[in-house]
Amino acid sequence: MNGGGPGEDREGRSSDVDALVGEALARVAEADTSEKLRELATELTGKRSPLSRAKAGLAALEAGERRAAGMALNAARQAVEAALESRRLELVAAERTALLEAERLDLSEVVPGRRRGHLHLVTQARDRLEDTFIGMGYTVAEGPEAESDWYNFEALNFPAGHPAREMYDTFYLELGPPESTLLRTHTSPVQIRIMESSEPPIYSVMPGRCYRIDTPDASHLPVFHQIEGLVVDRGITFGALAGTLDAFTEAYFGQGFRSRLRPSYFPFTEPSAEFDITCVFCKGEGCRTCGRTGWLELGGCGMVHPNVFAAVGYDPEVWSGFAFGFGIDRLVMMRHGIDDIRELITNDVRFLEQF
Ligand code: PHE
Description:
By secondary structure, the chain is α+β, with helices and mostly antiparallel strands.
């Protein structure tokens, strides 16, 4: 044995090894990131670590001591490596959880008192309109948005070249002969579809999306929503139309809301009218929004034209009826005092969350 001073064989002494392990385990426990732990692992078990140096020092020991000291060092290394591994697993799991938590986007969680996602304002209005009419004994029907010229115009008494077609700036589809297929400009084609496929009496409303070529501004969008009403029965009068619109206005807007009719023109109704409702802003007192009249224009209506009955094969001597139609988006704007229709499609959450 070279020398024999106290320092020379310290690598082999079990008390020193115990101290080394104790210190190593304490430092492992303190490492708080897997990055730091990796550096610590090199420091504690790498080539230049005290453990490795102690192992190298074993060569200097006498054979008898070497065996015991070697076993003690192996046990020490195993203890340190086991501690490193279990701490590593702990840290990796914690870091993973933290990352998931940070990146979490839980769209399903129910937080009491906080709404996450709901039906769009226009959908809510459409649902309420349907409910209101169902309560009045109507059924709800739908039709396609891509229509033929027949349903959108011809059967509704707009023959080819009829000037009233110019009320509707139409998107035509490149399908079939030119201008034979289009995106419906109103929900009135659904009237024709219902009458073609069923016999009177008919009490139906037909909500849906419509299209017209329009540059978007505060009151126009090229895609908008209408709801149509159609009644066909024996002895249906203009008075029934007026009464129905009045009953609807009160059911939808509330007590004190009335409707009125003004003469107008539509090819598929005769006589035709525009219908107004009590101004929702001033309750009829007269304000700037209603031009001091106390009324807001909502839609069109009239008695079904005999030519329309002829187009669907109904006998106008037996059946009579009325129809009405109005914009759901407009209605929503009136009801909530929204002054720009584009708000409805901008999808600004700050706007949408109010409803
Ligand atoms: N379809 C007409 C329009 O959009 C509205 C209307 C419907 C008029 C039913 C009368 C009867 O202009």
